[in-house]
Amino acid sequence: MNSILEMPGFCWKPRLLESALFTRFATLLAGFVLLIALAATPNLSAQGITGTITGTVSDPSGAVIGGASVTVRQTATNEARSVVTSDAGTYTVTQLQPGAYTVKVEKAGFKAAEQKGITLVIDQVALINIQLTVGSQAESVEVTSTGP
Q: Is CATH 1.10.8.60 the right assignment for the domain spanning 51-144?
């Protein structure tokens, strides 16, 4: 016998391929690769089913008003969602069903302001900036528009 290839019982087929351990390893590896591929895939949904109303509340000089109460009311259902503006005067109300909305803003020392006629459609981000004027909360300023 001159080489290992001439030895009796030598098999060219690797014994690793026949083992149950290799089969389990290959299955686990394939599952892991599939999991990584699915996790790396961006959200494939075509579009959402809701919209968002966002904006900034300011005074007549353009200074932002933090801590103002913002109420977004759907006209058809009378459902209302309330948020408070940030220190930067911004607010955002998400997950709103498509339809007609009214936005009302109130803050002590200012007249309440209300904007009606805002029509929100699917996946829309409506920018509704509201300016409050100095006065009593009992007073109200109504702004009517056809929406953005």
A: no
